[in-house]
């Protein structure tokens, strides 16, 4: 056991600490909460492609941990994925599938297809029986046309013309159900998506801050980060706090000058001889 | 907390078992290299084990690449190490602070399973994190010089820690 601990591991999950954690929990130590995304994520198909949207709030219990996080993840140049659920799970799963898609692109020499990403995601999530808590809205445009799918934490998927996920999904879905029609133009699509996300931001406590939008069409992807900022910070005090030097009681000070690193480059000699 | 071409990382000094104090000079902020520091809050033993693992990985990196790790790379490394233990995690929330290319400050925090949270102003973690969010939100100003940054970080830490029973006994502040 001592020998195997220090080598870089081969990948996959490591269950070494589970028994110890179970014992600690019996003794009363509470596991610290995970960062959840408590989100509103949406996607819709318009005439030339797919529009994805997400809010930007990350919560840790009732506290907002990050007021401007990124929930629209890159999968391939023509495929993006919004993630809801446990933040670490959505980030890890989308990064992993993104790398697998890149390797697949190198192997086949072709642009990735949305169904490839879909199958990779659903088989990973099903393998872990829903314990990897990632609910995703996957959208992209490939040689077979625009596609939009939702993936649930247990591994089931849906293929839809418009979809919403996350805690704010009901608020966003109400906007979609009343205003969606086929053959939307790009501007109408973006407007509808931002209206749906705003519905989630203002009516759901787990979603908030700004709106991110991603428009994917054949050959072009536009990631509009912070497309709308409906919650500007209005409580700034113009005076601010100003602390005078020496206000804090200091017991001891230690100043260490950083060593200058000298780089010695010898005139590159050829190695052959 | 980020300042002008500098950063500050601070922690309190109490080590306790629930309500009993065991030590009043516990070190929680560790050096990885001259311009990269990591603070680990949560279970003391996991903080020390995780620090030893990270120093080991960084030394291997230094041997192979003949240079220090960039803060962004280090944050990805910590995230991967924590996520590996997704179903039996370390009870630890790290705060990473470093100077990247051109001495541009970089800070980030993670939850105990490695969900990275980058910020441009300040990051907090620990039992007093709710108070710290409030104190930093009101006391932070962009582009502070090192001396002003020191005062701000210390006052934010002291005021939040005074409102939490499980933290206290002063603080360590490091400015780079």
UniProtKB/TrEMBL annotation, chain A:
Compartments where located: Cytoplasm; Nucleus
Gene3D superfamilies tied to this protein: Glutamine Phosphoribosylpyrophosphate, subunit 1, domain 1 (3.60.20.10)
Catalytic residues identified in the record: 39 (nucleophile)
GO MF, one example: threonine-type endopeptidase activity
Principal subcellular localisation of the protein: cytoplasm
Substrates-to-products reaction catalysed: Cleavage of peptide bonds with very broad specificity
Keywords tagged on the record: Cytoplasm, Hydrolase, Nucleus, Protease, Proteasome, Threonine protease
Annotated Gene Ontology cellular component terms: cytoplasm; nucleus; proteasome core complex
A Pfam family reported for this protein in Swiss-Prot or TrEMBL: Proteasome
InterPro entries reported for this sequence: Ntn_hydrolases_N, Pept_T1A_subB, Proteasome_bsu_CS, Proteasome_sua/b, Proteasome_suB-type
Record GO biological process: proteolysis involved in protein catabolic process
Protein task: Component of the proteasome, a multicatalytic proteinase complex which is characterized by its ability to cleave peptides with Arg, Phe, Tyr, Leu, and Glu adjacent to the leaving group at neutral or slightly basic pH. The proteasome has an ATP-dependent proteolytic activity.
Subunit-level organization: Component of the proteasome complex.
Family: Belongs to the peptidase T1B family.
Protein name as it appears in the record: Proteasome subunit beta
Source species: Digitaria exilis
From TrEMBL, chain B:
Keywords for this protein: Cytoplasm, Nucleus, Proteasome
Domain of life: Eukaryota
One Pfam family this sequence matches: Proteasome
GO CC entries: cytoplasm; nucleus; proteasome core complex, beta-subunit complex
One record GO biological process: proteasome-mediated ubiquitin-dependent protein catabolic process
Predominant cellular place of this UniProt entry's protein: nucleus
InterPro entries linked: Ntn_hydrolases_N, Proteasome_beta_3, Proteasome_sua/b, Proteasome_suB-type
Cell location: Nucleus
General function of this protein: Non-catalytic component of the proteasome, a multicatalytic proteinase complex which is characterized by its ability to cleave peptides with Arg, Phe, Tyr, Leu, and Glu adjacent to the leaving group at neutral or slightly basic pH. The proteasome has an ATP-dependent proteolytic activity.
Quaternary structure annotation from Swiss-Prot or TrEMBL: The 26S proteasome consists of a 20S proteasome core and two 19S regulatory subunits. The 20S proteasome core is composed of 28 subunits that are arranged in four stacked rings, resulting in a barrel-shaped structure. The two end rings are each formed by seven alpha subunits, and the two central rings are each formed by seven beta subunits. The catalytic chamber with the active sites is on the inside of the barrel.
Name of this protein: Proteasome subunit beta type 3
Organism: Digitaria exilis
